[in-house]
Batch of 2 targets.
Target 1
Amino acid sequence: MSFALGSFLHTLPLTALAVVVLLAITFAAALIYHKHAVIDVAWGLGFALIAIVTLVASAGHGDPARRWLITALTVLWGVRLAVHIGWRGRRHGEDPRYDKLLSRAKGNRDAYALRSVYLVQGVAMWFVSLPVQVTQFSAGGLGIVAWVGAAIWLVGFFFEAVGDLQLVRFKARPANKGVVMTEGLWRYTRHPNYFGDACVWWGLFLIAADAWPGALTVLSPLIMTYFLARGTGKRVLEKHMRDRPGFADYVERTSGFFPLPPRKTT
């Protein structure tokens, strides 16, 4: 199997530039709407954009089946996530998480947001997407590892999409205002969407790892999983919810990340 190293290296600045342009547009929108939470919409779109830019730039290199497969899966995941977050937050003001973060600013809040939110997420987006970028330039047909990766991606996409839909429907009922969601997939894990997100990126990594040098990008899914399970995902959200009635009991009986049968409580 061969890898078009030179062409890959020439593409890296292009994907970085694509991220910069997207986040510049997002920052401008945030200033207009006074809402830096719009970057959450750009998160999924950024990965989709990187996949498309790399697909175009890798024309004539790599395996066509692998290139189109990983691009399609990345775009489908990224666009669905962006649409969901955009629709969910359309009638809300600034996210309390960003309000708390920006309250630390000693000077201009927008300048602080540019450094501590946009720059950080831009670097993370570009680095986490490396399996998608690398595999576009890898030759060789799809093997068993790639198909296992596609299956894991499908499991992850199911958990993330269905979990989000179940939560939206639950919150739509007036009687559930302030109530902890414990139905559907949320009965088996407190974060089916985060678990699904992690599976999506491990699946994309395995598609990349099916051909050299995709296996070298293992830090990308590891970092994404850390963000979701230990970093800015699960930990921050649960800190925000810990005073909600019934949440402590929910934590006691429900797995924090990996789906498991509910534990019996006394």
Target 2
Amino acid sequence: MLRIDGVSYRYRNTDTPALREISLVIPAGGVYGLLGPNGAGKTTLISLLAGLLTAGNGEISLNGQPLAAARAANPRAIALVPQDYAFYPMLTVSENLRFFGGVLGLSGAEQKTQSAAAIAFARLEQVGGKRADQLSGGLRRRLNLAIGLLGRPQLLLLDEPTVGVDPQSRHFLLDAIAALPAAGTSVIYTSHYMEEVEAICPQIAIIDQGQVLVDGTLADLLRSPEPLLELTLDRPLPAELGERYAARHDGALKYCLQLPSTAALPGLLDELAAAGCTAHQLNLGQHNLEQVFMQLTHRSLRD
């Protein structure tokens, strides 16, 4: 289990803290989603967990040990797979794995075993002798992941691991990442793709302006106390109805309305008909993650 307790961080020569007393409990044995707009503090938090920065105040512990002590006891306990490619383009896949295995202190039979396991996990057997700069975007992402797994980390930090890949490679990567906890590696997953987080992260946290806005299970975060109505109309929603039902414009003639109860739906449809509006598409149900995110941050993930 990873515990973050009251952690703050301020970069030199800045007035505003990048993190403000962040507190999270991230259980072992799962894939934990970390979301936030650009500049929210995600990269700073990941850098603190990876040991690239030191917290100004607060505590971080891994399995009951202070983070520094946990790293000293096992330098391979936490691994970071960054958004940028973290390998040498002029080296082959196998040469990159041997090099980074050496950096981790792997040698001899252990290095061969770990490299073979990483290659098999990322399905790189057919390109072991190929230079990294000759790989497709999907294979480069898989090489990034394989290097991160060389030391069998307890916790793997993944920062945008599917950027720039084709749909088939994205599907493979998501399946592979979702399988990591069963092999003993917990994951913290950051992504700009909401559907990825919904697919593989049972628990998530949303941060913005250096603070935790919400954290919990995905099911709890998506549960809405009021029925949420999504509808597409043939003309703009009348302003009076939009105000009464706290409507949000989702583009074109799509709207999201909050009803006081499901019993209010027939009355709303009658009001729309009286206003000359025809509903072409209608969905009554719970929030999706993007809607929750927009309500909390009032901006898109890529802002």
